[in-house]
Structures are given as C-alpha cells and as structure tokens.
Amino acid sequence: MRMILTKILREIGFECSESADGQAALDRLNRGEAFDLMLVDWNMPIMNGYQLVCAVRSNPLLGDTRIMMVTTETSMTQVQAALSAGANEYLMKPFTKELLLEKLQLIGIS
Q: For residue 79, what are the CA distances in angstroms to 30, 74, 100?
C-alpha cells in the first residue's frame, strides 16, 4: 500500500519518505524531520496510526503537520476517533487516485 500511495504522490509532484511503523515515524519527527503531510494507516505495527496521531497532536512543535488516516478500518467509531484525535481527513481502502486527490484538496494540499 505504501508503494501505491508513494507512486500516486510522486506522479503529482510530491517528495515521499516512508516509515515501516508508527514508532519509526514518530522517532523521525522527534529528531526534527518535518513533513507537510503524513498518510497514516490505523493498522501499523509497534505503534498504530491512532496512537501516532495522538502523539503528533500532543506535541505543539508538530501541530501544523497534516495527517490523513488511510486504512481499511471503516467503523464510524474509528473514523470519529481518528478525526477527534486530530487527523485532518480519513480515507478508506480501497480508494481511487481521484478520491485521494480530492481528500488532499480538502486539507489544502494539491
């Protein structure tokens, strides 16, 4: 899935970087790496996407980072939890390139 998302984003001009799990992503942020957008899966090893969103939003230095949850989790409870925790948008798999682009526009990236 990361490869598919990276391919789409690179096609539209984004530079991309990947982390294998939520803790690795958080470690990179805590080392000072800055990202305009994070695409986060709820189901990641070590630290899941929800926990990552909560950790990012609890750090005032990372507050401007836009986060989109991209996941197979379709429960409205989980959608609401992710958005309440601070995810800017929620994209359910499977999705189309067009839907991803639409969600990026909704959060001011495109």
A: 26, 7, 16
Task: Count CB atoms within 10 A of the CB of residue 109.
Answer: 17
Instruction: Locate 82 and state its tokens.
Output: 């992710």
Per-residue pLDDT for the chain (110 aa), expressed as one digit of tens each? 888 899 999 998 999 999 999 999 999 999 999 999 999 999 999 999 999 999 999 999 887 899 999 999 889 999 999 999 999 999 999 999 999 999 999 999 87
Q: How far apart are CA 76 and CA 100, in angstroms?
A: 19
pTM: 0.91
Instruction: Give the start-to-end residue ranges of the domains of the chain.
Output: 2-12+20-105
Burial 59-68 (b: 16+ CB within 10 A, else e): eeebeebbbb
Q: Does domain 2-12+20-105 have CATH number 1.10.3720.10?
A: no
